[in-house]
Amino acid sequence: MPTLLFCNANYLRSLPFVLLILTTGMFSFQPAFATTKANTSQISNNERLAHEQGRKIYNFRCYYCHGYSGDARTLSSHLLIPPPRDFTHLQPQSPNRKSMIASVRDGHPGTAMASYADILNKRQIALVVDFVRNEFILHKKENTRYHTAANGWPNHERYRAAFPFARGEIALDQNPETLSVEQIKGRQLFLDTCITCHDRAKIHDEGPEWEASAVSFPRNNTSFLYPQVDNISEASVYARHEVAPVVTSLNKKEKKGAKLFQDNCAFCHGADGTGKNWIGSFLEPRPRDLTDPEIMQAMSLQRLRRAIEDGLTDTTMPAWKDVLKKNEIDELIAYINAVFYPLPGYPKK
To answer: Alpha-carbon distance 109 to 82, whole Å?
Structure first.
């Protein structure tokens, strides 16, 4: 989701004129309108309505990165460089209203803050900017509370032990030996209840980078009216695994196994047996890479047969014993042995 990130704070201008025309309520400016009771009431109601309209836009478009309270204490603040702007630490004069409107309208290159010119009209941009300035910069309010009974969180205080982990006050990978009994309970409560939304909290050790995941394929909005366009237009990290190995020395049994594999197994394992095709890259856990020496060296003939016949629990590998005949499973194993990796204990030709 796009973010509302303001990076240019080198503006030292006066307060926006909209604040100067406010007549009552939270501001101390002198009224710019005639101070009749009816006029004052109407201005107050109009301002209240505009403020709530701005809140609605903010809560839909901006909260994900900047947080419901404008303090940017969100998952995005851990993942984006530079992080989203914390509005609660800004002063009204810097950045000023004009520069903030420009930020929302034009975005900021080199940041996650995108242009909203094609999403919000001029009035909506002004509404959300005025809301941010009023709610967060001027009055440091909390805006909308998410953890309420209306949102399905009655008595949110019962999760208090988990709060330090959600707020990043205690690292999630903190050595358990340094935690109190209450903190250990809070950590488990966070993992059981909070981490879905508050992932990933604060951690000391980032660990290895996440494994790459499939996003879309074919690329370039390929139409299936024109097959193989993606393969032609650019190299595909997935299409290369949809090509079956060419082996001319297969015997009759292995050739039958080749057809069985390509017709039944290649959908998940890839035509090349790596499991790195598009479908295989989406599945978790990943289909077994039948060409990986580390995996296949530990694979026995009996173990492979059992996996094909009975499937593998907690994976997408189904049981084939009611689909393939015994001799067909033999042919399939023969092909895997001949083309992908020689199975320990498999009879030599």
So the answer is: 11
CA distance 29 to 19: 7
Nearest residue to 102 (alpha-carbon basis) of 219, 7, 229, 22: 7
Q: Could you give the CA distance from residue 64 to residue 67 in angstroms, rounded to a whole number?
A: 6
pLDDT score for 215: 59
pLDDT digits (tens, 9 = 90+) for 33-65: 333 344 444 558 999 999 999 999 999 999 889
Q: Quick count: other Cβ atoms within 10 Å of Cβ 116?
A: 21
Strand, coil or helix: what is 88?
Answer: helix
Q: Predicted confidence band at 159 (pLDDT cuts at 50, 70, 90)? A: very high
3-state secondary structure of 3: strand
- The continuous run of DSSP H or E covering 65 comes out as helix 63-66
The answer to whether 273 and 336 are in contact (CB under 8 A) is yes
Distance CA 300, CA 304 (A): 6
Q: Which domains does the chain have, with CATH numbers?
A: 17-138 (1.10.760.10), 149-198 (no CATH), 239-340 (1.10.760.10)
Least confident of 33-47, 84-98, 308-322: 33-47
Q: Which of 202, 192, 200 is nearest to 171 (CA)?
A: 202
